[in-house]
Amino acid sequence: MTKKRAIVFSGGRLNEEDLQQIQPDDFIIGADKGALFLIEHGITPHVSVGDFDSITSEEQEQVKSASQRMIACDPVHKDLTDTELALEIAMEEQVDHVLLLGVTGTRMDHTLANVQILVRAMQHHISCAIMDAHNYIELTGSTLEIQPMGYTYTSLIPMTAEVTGIQLEGFMYPLHNATLKMGQSRGVSNKLTAAKGTISIKSGLLLVIQSKD
Asked: Which H, E and C letters describe 128-183, residue by residue?
């Protein structure tokens, strides 16, 4: 069975290289200003969603006319961020994987909230990743395979009070049945040394960040 993927373009940092991530069968979602970014580059979103408070009324009309479907919500009376709304739509499409682009940037509150969205995707048994020019971020509660993607470092950040039974294979600094606790930096800046790496844990949630300067 072919796996279905959604790709979300949100309103943070985006560049033209991000458009190269689009695959022919992707379900494309534009969140707020991310929708305008897609349309300005000739891409038709399957759905554009958000309060659209970061674009003008004229640009909002442009998004409405160029999208297959548009879901606009009140900027004040809403409980979810635009990126969360986009994830909800992706889950309704019963996708297997979601790639989030444009969800990092100068607003640290938005960036951290978007990182935590990975937890929500995992709760719905959907794999999800955040990608920007310098980072590829995933979350695991069991086993994760790391492929070379041009990043220099792989860092492990606990997302729960502690993560136990950590096993690393294929890395410069291996771990065997290790425990990482919040506030520790022991898992930062490891390096992949094999054709692929494997990260497995027994309990907890572990943020895995591949990065480069």
From this structure: EEEECCCEEEEEECCEEEECCCCCCEEEEEECCCEEEEEEEECECCCCCCEEEECC
Give the list of residues 6+ apart from residue 19 with CB closer than 8 angstroms, or none: 41, 43
End-to-end CA distance of the chain: 38
pLDDT, tens only, 30-63: 999 999 999 999 999 999 999 888 899 999 999 9
Pairing type for strands 143-146 and 162-169 reads unpaired
Q: Left if phi > 0, otherwise alpha if psi is -120 to 50, otherwise beta: which for 183? A: left
* DSSP code string of 60-127: HHHHHHHSS-EEE--SSS-SS-HHHHHHHHHHHTT-SEEEEES--SS-HHHHHHHHHHHHHHHHTT-E
Q: Is 101 exposed, middle or buried (0-12, 13-18, 19+ CB in 10 A)?
A: buried
Phi, psi of 104 (to 5 degrees): -120, 160
Amino acid at 63: V
Q: What is the pLDDT of residues 135-185, one digit of tens each?
A: 999 999 999 999 999 999 999 999 999 999 999 999 999 999 999 999 988
- Spatial distance between the Cα atoms of 195 and 173, rounded to a whole number of angstroms: 15
Q: Does residue 122 surpass a pLDDT of 60?
A: yes
